Amino acid sequence: MVFPNFLRPVSGAFLLCAVTIAQAAPPPLSLAEALRRVEAHNPQLAARAALREAAGTRLPAARLKPNPELKVAVEDVLGSGDYRAVDSSQLTVSLAQLIEPRARVEGRVAVAQAGIGIEAAALDAERWALLAETHRRYAVALVRAGRLALAGEALANAQRLHAATDARVRAAAAPLAERERAFAVLARAELDVEDQEHELAAARVSLAALWQGEDDFGALAGDVFALPPMRPLADWQAALSASPALRRFTAERALIRAEQRLLAAERQRSWQLEAGLRHYGRGQDFGLVGGVSLPLRRSDPQMPRLAEAEARLRAAESGEAAAVAEARAELFSLYQEMNHGQLHLKRLREEVLPANERALTATEAAVQRGRYGVWEWLQVRNDWLATKKEMLDDAELLHTTLAALERVSGLALIDGIEHSIESNGAAP
Are residues 211 and 38 in contact, defined by beta-carbon separation less than 8 angstroms? Predict the structure, then answer.
């Protein structure tokens, strides 16, 4: 029996057109290339890198010693009697040097280094969050491309259904209502393709925005259903202590402790030594002068600042404890969602989709024998497409969850992500 026209594959002319378009398209964009572009061109990352560079300039400044002071003093001039005019003047030229305790210099250096540590932690956290967000947006765009492909397949089915129904109506083998129903199915399929085109365009622009780029790249390369092996929950939790998101608390505590050491060093007295030469105008004689100054302490201005630093340190420790608790709870929730999503996708792939495919094969055979018509075939075909759409929904959820796990834990999974998402071929 001849296979019905509406079940035949897409024509060779359509395939030739698709091949021609693919050959003219830009090269595909891989996740590795997207990550490279983000690291090279993301403005937020560039701003953070500039702040890190600015913090680095404070270190040489902290090592500088106080500059000497040049003092010039004139005495016994423009007075009365023997001190009229400048005949009895005394001109003194001297240099004064502040001698700081070594602990002060070391304290300033420690504060500058801690400031660099804070900016470095902020830069690392910004970078890691952007890499995780790049993974998420890349996976979303890849899923959108898969949905567009499925919408195109549904449109092709609707076109074949409409053509077959129109032929039956013209041959007076079916009522006019069937052609109208087929036209409605076709119109809805066309609307769905347009919707998916918009969704894909928005996802691609959102991805390119991470590196201030344009949607000028080709198709996204990868298999969105390929995921790295799931790590145990303990691995994710163990990585929390060194995660970029929480490392800022360690850097903040280091800065406060460095400020405490500097405040303690500033309680030590600084000496000022002065030495110079004095000229006596009346006798045209010279003499050496010198002196030492030492501040007197009537009160200790560093005590309230030390108390403030101690309170800030306790606040930082409490903030870190709260952030760690929240991160552990979020990790657990994401991990459970990841496991559930993987199980759901596995059952769809291994049980539901094969059943849909068997039903589709049996329906096509029944259509050939004349036991079923085009509408029964379309329903089974739509069930098969619905399962594939649901699998894409699961894949998007899994990649979004995985990106969130990366962001929270800081576990280095980028290599695994690249290997998984860029394996064979693109689409669902």
Answer: yes
In the structure, what pLDDT confidence band is assigned to residue 366 with cuts at 50, 70 and 90?
A: confident
In the numeric block, which tokens belong to residue 173? Answer: 């083998």
Which residues face 62 on adjacent strands?
none
C-alpha to C-alpha distance for 330 and 409, rounded to whole angstroms: 10
Whether 80 has a pLDDT exceeding 90, the answer reads: no
Looking at this protein, which amino acid is placed at residue 290? G
Q: Cβ distance 182 to 161 under 8 Å? A: yes
pLDDT value for 14: 38
Q: What is the pLDDT of residue 352?
A: 95
- Write the burial class of residue 105 (CB in 10 Å: 0-12 exposed, 13-18 middle, 19+ buried): middle
- The model's pLDDT over 383-396, given as tens digits with 9 standing for 90+, comes to 999 999 999 999 99
3-state SS of the chain? Answer: CCCCHHHCCCCHHHHHHHHHHHHHCCCCECHHHHHHHHHHHCHHHHHHHHHHHHHHCHHHHHHCCCCCEEEEEEECCCCCHHHCCCCCCEEEEEEEEEECCHHHHHHHHHHHHHHHHHHHHHHHHHHHHHHHHHHHHHHHHHHHHHHHHHHHHHHHHHHHHHHHHHHHHHCCCCCHHHHHHHHHHHHHHHHHHHHHHHHHHHHHHHHHHCCCCCCCCCCECCCCCCCCCCCCHHHHHHHHHHCHHHHHHHHHHHHHHHHHHHHHHHCCCCEEEEEEEEEECCCCEEEEEEEEECCCCCCCCHHHHHHHHHHHHHHHHHHHHHHHHHHHHHHHHHHHHHHHHHHHHHHHHHHHHHHHHHHHHHHHHHHHCCCCCHHHHHHHHHHHHHHHHHHHHHHHHHHHHHHHHHHHHCCCCHHHHHHHHCCCCCCC
Q: Is the pTM of this model over 0.90?
A: no
Nearest to 316 by CA among 121, 107, 55, 47: 121
Edge-first strand listing for the sheet containing 271-280: 69-75, 90-99, 271-280, 285-293
292 within 8 A of 269, measured Cβ to Cβ: no
On whether the CB atoms of residues 398 and 341 are closer than 8 A, the answer is: yes
Which tokens in the block code for residue 387?
Answer: 């399962």
Q: In the block, which residue shows the tokens 């995660």?
A: 243
C-alpha Rg value of the chain to the nearest Å: 38
